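dumping this here so i dont lose it
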């Protein structure tokens, strides 16, 4: 997925903001995914307890 290449961690998603997340998803899916899915991804990142650094 395109978002994981640019933002491998939840904090990266939060740092770039929802507008950039939307653009990444639109580009990766040829405009099939928009603001609704980007909002879900962004909210999931906000509520994530993910690992802060790679292994």
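and the seq i came up w/
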């Amino acid at each position: 997925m395109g978002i994981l290449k640019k933002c491998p961690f939840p904090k990266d998603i939060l740092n770039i903001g929802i507008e950039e997340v939307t653009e990444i998803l639109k580009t990766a899916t040829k405009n099939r995914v928009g603001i609704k899915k980007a909002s879900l991804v962004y909210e999931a990142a906000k509520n994530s307890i993910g690992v802060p650094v790679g292994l």
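The CA atoms of residues 14 and 54 lie 17 Å apart.
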